[in-house]
Amino acid sequence: MWIKGRVTDQSSIVPGYYRLRLRVPVAFGARPGQFAMIRAWDTYDPLLPRPFSFHRLLPEKGEFEILYKVRGRGTELMTRLSTGDEVYIRGPLGNGFEIPHGAERIAVVARGIGIAPMLALAEEAAKGGVEVQSFLSAKTRELLLAHAELEKVSAETFVLTDDMPEAKDRLVTDMLAEVAAHKKFDAVYVCGSRRLTRAVASLEMEYGFRGYVAMESHMACGTGACKGCICKVRGEDGEEAYKYVCKDGPVFPVRRVVV
Amino acid sequence: MPDVDLTVQLGPLTLKNPVMPASGTFEYSEEQRELFDLARLGAMVAKSVTLKRRPGNPAPRLHEVTAGLLNAVGIPSEGIHHFIEVTLPALAQIDTTLIVSIAGDSVEEFATVARMLDPYRGQVSALELNLSCPNLTHGVPFATDEKLMRATVEAVRESTTLPIIAKLSPNVTDIVKMAGIAREAGADIISMINTLIGMAIDVETRRPVLGNVVGGLSGPAIKPVALRMIWETSQSVDIPIIGMGGISNARDAIEFMLAGASAVAVGVASFRNPLVMLEIVDGIESYLAGHGFGSPKEIVGLAWKERMV
Q: Is residue A227 within 8 angstroms of chain B, CB to CB?
């Protein structure tokens, strides 16, 4: 879909991080893990739309939220958006998260802005009666974005920030391993850190859950045309090949990606 | 206002209108088909296909710069067999002219791919030779070397009866000369320009941004360069030109036609606005009607033709 959306709310969570709410005029049909290309300018500088995962899906209101970090000229311009402003939206795009049929418990693992797609997933899982356990990592406690919102839909939330003394020789996935030792997870989802992605991949072998990673990349088109947003993925035969984050992902089985 | 007939004749090739995607910027995907009927395009242009499967360049492949996009994609291709078996049948369903871009690391590879596509002349209307991709790892782009370009176009000419479009590189001292060589060697049509080689450096890491170090610059930033090159080439080479390089709206497209392009191709602008090609078709039509022209060919090169009178 290629539509104009209208800003209904924007707020800064902590300096440099914003939550933007958009209203779309038609049923959007987006799923957690999918993304949209958003352009909030008519200029040639910045030029192209930017990809954002859905942070929260509110179909009953015809709205969705994105959570973004100011990284360059595009996101800098977006911080100036206010209620009523129009933006161009192409989406929903990509494959989205899969919650295995009959799943009883899942875990979400996120670092920093990697939390963005996880709230939508956790809210959908909780709505479907699936227990959610959240494992959050960030540089500082302040940068545990959307922590409160995620806590509301999580049975338990575990946090580990780089400024905590115990973070010296521990990852938040070590906490996941401790829980997984006595509770069965049907699926674990990770976003925002190569290190955590690798850790989830190795825990998948050990604990037999299905692991998924939401990959990030710069994109020009978001639809598979420009061939720009590659990641390395291992096939069934173990052979590595480039896949496109936009079209083949952004969600991949965690054991398949080479990170 | 007169009735406008948007049909254009590019040598042996007839298009229902003068607007098409630039190769490698437009995909025949379900998402795209939902946005508009691809039959409204003057032509569909497929991404370059090579003889064998090739992965393309490592990440990062993209970097946005001021009013432009640097890319170092490097022609990833599933190879000609996959193209013929899977891609071509899907593309052939679009009710418009199909142009297939071909690329290779050697003269022989170009000729072989052309030969393999020749039996599909019912579905393929023309071959565009990607002589100018700046992202090949082996040696120089063909369109920057006079001998290589001549040899490639000649070899393809001998391998196919399909119309040949030679896509030129702007990364040369004299593009008019290169266009003349392509014509002598048997090209029916010129397409120009491919991307300009550029680069970007991350000041924090102090390293080049692109995985391939250098990449091709496209987008509005290169439009004046493309326009100048078409202006010069169209005045001295007597085969039609498909003009491209930063076209973002109908006004840009009309500028290219006034400079001497018989048709236009749109690349990066479709990433900003996936409906832009339709807007360009409509915009050309209303410009022609509004200015008393009956067909696109009446304005091709007018900027220099009228100046000479």
A: yes
A229 vs B contacts (CB less than 8 Å): 61-62
Cβ distance of A2 and B25 shorter than 8 Å: no
The CATH architecture annotation of domain A2-93 reads Beta Barrel (2.40)
- Say how far apart CA A21 and CA A63 lie, in whole Å: 7
**Chain B residues touching A44 at Cβ < 8 A:** 67, 219-221, 248
Mean pLDDT over the full length of chain B? 95
- Among the four given CATH numbers 3.30.565.10, 3.40.50.80, 3.40.50.720, 3.20.20.10, the one describing domain A105-214: 3.40.50.80
Whose tokens are 């009866």? That residue is: B161
Q: Is B62 an 8 Å CB contact of chain A?
A: yes
B136 has pLDDT over 80: no
What residues contact A98, with CB distance under 8 A and at least 6 apart? A187, A212, A251
Q: Which residues pair with A58 in a beta bridge?
A: A63
Q: Which amino acid is at B307?
A: R
pLDDT of residue B307: 84
Contacts with B, A 55-114, CB within 8 Å: 88, 90, 93
Task: Give the tokens for residue B203.
Answer: 């000041």
CATH of domain B8-308: 3.20.20.70
Give me the active site residues of B, please.
133
Residue ranges covered by each domain of chain A = 2-93, 105-214, 218-259
A8 in reach of chain B (CB within 8 A): no
Q: Assess B67–A contact: CB distance below 8 Å, yes or no.
A: yes
Residue A31 has pLDDT above 90, yes or no: yes
